[in-house]
Every structure is written in structure tokens, then in C-alpha cells.
Amino acid sequence: MTENSHTSNASSMPLNQAAGTTGGSFTEGSAEYTAAGNEMSASFLADKKRSDALKIKIRKDPSHFTMLTGDRPTGRLHLGHLFGSLMGRVKLQNMGVHTNIIIADYQVITDRDTTEHIQDNVLNLVLDYMAAGIDPNKTMIYTHSAVPAENQLMLPFLSLVSEAELERNPTVKAEMEASGHELTGLLLTYPVHQACDILFCKANVVPIGKDNLPHVQITRTIARRFNRRYAKKNPVFPEPSALLSDTPEIPGLDGKKMSKSRGNSIKLSATPEETAKLIRKSPTDSERMITFDPIHRPQVSALLTTASLCSGRPATEIAAEIGNAGAGALKAYTTKVVNDFLAPLRERRAELAKDMDSIHDILRQGNKRANEIANQTLDQVRDAMGMRY
Ligand code: TRP
After folding, report:
1. What is the pTM (predicted TM-score) of this model?
2. Position 168 in a domain
3. How far apart, in whole angstroms, are the C-alpha atoms of residue 337 and residue 311?
């Protein structure tokens, strides 16, 4: 697939308003980037198509693929992460894909000026991963700050993108507005840093949400430009593809976008009682009859979606069953199926949490391995650039 192919069709169709951003696309010649705001653009559809095709290829020959994805250590993971990404990572891991997870600690300071709780957040991410089924013997888990050679890729990579390209990234713009901060140099350039995450281990599969699509686009551009400029005969980097989740975005309990900061999400690490309380407090509407209607009844529908995912039953079936019993009954049912569904994961998590030294060791081992890989890649980069002295 060429870089231009998904910019040719300018038509777009409306999408889910909650999405802040969608993918865009580069064209090499003009370095043109088209962001589509709140609309499903032609480029998003092309990304989705490419992602679906990739899934088929992975199934055929999993060991041919290297996955890299990750999270910012800004808090505990929630149900949205579990269905939207963790379960997919575990599946790839168990299929035999080479799997890598970055705990993106330097991304925390893209738009905030504190690293408070960072140790705690990082170690708890490792716990969340392992409770969800990530096996550190199969999946490398590492942090940005522990891998200098990965960070060093940033210098040659920055030389491969223009200021205009950086400024056109719709996700960076949205994040800057949401933060209320000025645009810092790191926020402007973190998509390039994310390219370092992906390319240092030569990942060719990047599971992400659609707000991260522009970052995968720029990663592809950087890989291509590096190879073209310095490594024509022996390309150093693959051009990775985004893998989009099949699970539609799960709304928060209030019907709004689920977010760590909004308090509308069920944490994997929460107790059954905390979960019950959160669901009990979640707002509904004044209509007693329970129906599944995400547009007109986002709050009731968010509960139904949550219950549906955790019970494996269609939301409409649950709604019909509860019917006139009202929101109280819906909340009781949702609480039960969420807590039942999460019970084994929470049990594993609590068991693992008894020995935080081992969790720390797992991270140290991941970091050690990541350093080996990053040093190797950086050597290849230096070779290609004639900078090995
Ligand atoms: N930006 C991602 C997020 O906020 C986290 C991340 C950092 C990431 N580096 C990555 C995702 C590399 C995929 C690949 O969710």
C-alpha cells in the first residue's frame, strides 16, 4: 500500500461525536496531513481496512510479527483498557506474536508538570497487565526512562520530520487544548518519541486506539525516510501498521468518554464494594422502563453496554429482561456481572501484589532486555549513518 492511497478520496462520513480525533494521512511529496476532526475520514476507513487485513495475516503466521504498544503510567487501568486493548495484547501474546509493552513514563510529562506517584503507577501497571494475562516470559515490559539507546533514536528521527508535520498532528493539538498548558517541546515532538518506541524493537504491529493513528502514520513516514536516506540497500526499519480494536469504545458509567481522571470508569484493581458504590452513584434518567438507546439514553445504555460485555449477553436482551424494574435493578445486575467477571483477574492481582519486589524484578528484566535490543538497533542506525567510530 502506498502512502498516498488513502488520501485520494476526500469524502467523509459522520462518526461518534465522543471521538476527539481520528486518523490522518501523509502524502510524501507535499507532506500534506489531513485531519478530519470529529468525522470518520477516508483515511480512517483505509486504516481500518489495513488493520483488518493485518489481522488475517497475523493469524496465518503469528511468529512473523512483532507487536509494540503501551500506556502512560498515569493511574490504574479500567474496564475500557481491558476490553479495548489488554485482551487483544494477551491474544497476540498467546498466538506467538513477539509482544512488547512500553510503560511510557516520559509521555507523562508531555502535558503535566509532575511525576508524583510515578513509581506506584508504573508498578501497578505491571500488576494490571499480569492480572489480565500478560506473561512477562513472553512479553517484554519496559519503561522509557530506563532505555537510553531508545531515547537516542529521537535525534536522527527528529531530523526526518518538519515542524509543519508536527504541528498538524490532531491528537497533539487536542491534548494541548485539554491540558490547558502551553504547547511544550515534548508534547509537540512526542509522536516522534513514540516512533522510537515502535521502531527500536522493529515492531510491525501497533495495537492502538484511533487517537494514536496519527502517531503510527508519522512512524511509517520516519521509517521510510530513514531507510531511503541512509539505508537504501539494507533497510533498517519496517513500516509498522496500526491494529485497531474490534470492541467499540466503551462509554464511562456516566455515558461520557471513559477516562482515568473523570471517575467514570471501573478500575480492574477496585474492590467489589468500590465497584458497587461507583455503579450505584452513576447517573441515570427519569424514565423507569429500561431500553438500550445509546443516542437518547447514554447513561442507561452505558450501564447496559458494560453489563453486556461482562456477561456476554446482548444489551437489548438485558434491557428487555429488566424492563420496568428500573435503574435500581439494572445497577444491581450490572454490579453483579462486572464483579463476577473481574473476580478471577482481581484474585490474581491481589496475589501478585503480595510480592512487589518480584514485580519490580520483572520490570528490571524487561528493561535489561529492552536495552540490549535498543543498543543493537542504535548500532545499526550509527552504521547506516556512518557514525560508528
Ligand atoms: N500514546 C499511547 C497512549 O497514550 C501510549 C504509547 C506510548 C504507545 N508509546 C507507544 C502506544 C507506542 C503504542 C505504541 O495510549
Report:
1. 0.89
2. yes
3. 6
